[in-house]
Specification:
Layout (H helix, E strand, L loop, with lengths): L2 E7 L18 H17 L4 E8 L14 E4 L6 H15 L5 E4 L8 H11 L4 E4 L6 E5 L14 H7 L3 E2 L5 H4 L5 H10 L3 H7 L8
Parallel strand pairs: 1-2, 1-4, 2-3, 5-7
Antiparallel strand pairs: 4-6, 5-6
Helix pairs in contact: 1-7
């Protein structure tokens, strides 16, 4: 199954507020950009991803991410995460009304393309979602072909997506479940092995095969 992905992103200086303190304050925006860069590098390397649309609060602030093969558009007037996902999905569907659209978080720096491929295979054209490693949040939501994405991101999103009829995916896909919101999450992905952008920001060797 092939997919077009929507990835939202705040201005790097405003993103990942609960991660503040993991690095020096002046290095925080660079770390936020690096988390996104490794996420995007993984998805664009997948043969199952056709397009990636980055919906950004400030496109100029994340312009360097276009080098990874993603398209960047401005977020809609409604400044919420779910509005950004709906906006991106609408833009993608204008070009292909029958496509599978996915909503992906921008903070998966240990992501392997193989885990994403496994999730797509398990979904089998169903509206489905991947819960985070704590089981409460959502890292990926997939629409059925041509059907609404219907995102319900935010606190308790895994429960909300299940209640909305989305199928939870249960595969062994640890790097797709490992988003980074806190210093503890950052330690977890470092143990998994982060991509080269995050590794460079943290001053450690890259251990993630891409």
């Amino acid at each position: 199954m092939d997919v077009d992905l929507v990835v939202p992103m705040k201005h790097p200086r405003d993103g990942k507020s609960r991660l503040r303190g993991a690095v020096e304050a002046d290095r925080h925006p660079g770390l936020v950009l690096a988390l996104a860069a490794d996420t995007l590098a993984a998805v664009t390397s997948s043969g199952h991803v056709r397009r990636v649309l980055l919906v950004a609060a400030d496109p100029a602030a994340v312009a360097e991410l276009a080098e990874l093969g993603v398209e960047i558009v401005a977020e809609p007037p409604e400044k919420t995460l779910n509005a950004a996902f709906r906006h991106g999905a609408e833009l993608l569907r204008r070009d292909d009304p029958h496509s599978v659209v996915g909503a992906l978080q921008a903070d998966l720096p240990a992501l392997r393309a193989g885990d994403l491929a496994a999730a797509l295979a398990e979904a089998k054209d169903r509206r489905a979602f991947v819960a985070d490693r704590q089981g409460t949040g959502t890292t990926l939501l997939l629409s059925a072909p041509g059907q609404p994405l219907d995102p319900h991101f935010g606190p308790g999103s895994a429960r909300k997506h299940a209640a909305s009829g989305a199928t939870p995916l249960h595969g062994e896909i640890p790097t797709l479940r490992s988003d980074v919101d806190t210093p503890e999450d950052l330690a977890h992905v470092r143990a998994l092995g982060v991509g080269k952008h995050t590794a460079a920001r943290l001053g450690e060797p890259c251990a993630t095969p891409r």
